[in-house]
Amino acid sequence: MLTRRIIPCLDVTDGRVVKGIRFAGLRDMGDPAALAAEYASQGADEIIILDISATTSLRATAADVVSRCRAALSIPLTVGGGVRSIDDASRLLDRGADRVCVNSAAVERPGLITELADRYGTQCVVVAADARRSSAFCWTILTRSGQLDTGLDAVRWARKAGELGAGEMLLTSWDRDGTRDGYDLELLRAVCGATRIPVVASGGAATVRHMKDAFDAGADAVLAASIFHEGVKSVGAIKQALSGFGVEVRL
User: Fold this and answer.
1) CA–CA separation, 165 vs 162, rounded Å?
2) What pLDDT is recorded for position 55?
3) Catalytic residue numbers?
4) Which of 115, 170, 192, 229 is exposed most, by the fewest CB atoms within 10 A?
5) Domain 5-244 adopts which CATH fold?
6) pTM of the model
7) Residue ranges of domains in the chain
């Protein structure tokens, strides 16, 4: 049976972890290296760092944050935000990232996905997709930290990203982000049914049941932030509960 992953997410700006609702109303949640180490000690399978202001500020991801987090971790580290080129990816990988995550730049220049996959292998390339529901069973891709609605169909983009060389997709429901209403299961099912690459569910997690539902909908991993940052649940407690539901996790 495939082992499912639990991934805490660190949204970072100006060297601090922040969290809001639908990418707005950001609150300071702490130091990224300290939080990464804490979640690793609880049994996290991976840490994802997203420098959420890098793209809108037209700068590269803060490499010093990556270095500090890498020094505190022995588990995989994925880093995104402001990755626009091979050079940007190389800088993050040299600082200790195991994989790089691309979002806005990949939508604007899809060939970037293939360039990264050809250089580093598909296992190093994660495509992040921020999707907003536009109508029943239809979602469009947002870029630039949710500021721009591209009109691009999210399901078609997921399929194309996999064909271009992405090794995984980080799928965030903009509508559910920070709301604690649970993942958008319809979105998950649609995307998981359209692509063969693993999909990480993101946006809206508040309970173990939400995570179980996401796995049942086809997700290979679940990402969460608020429930970890605010101490609602520990990674270990979530894994124990999921195991009780029959979900295969690394304990």
Assistant:
1) 5
2) 56
3) 11, 130
4) 115
5) TIM Barrel (3.20.20)
6) 0.93
7) 5-244
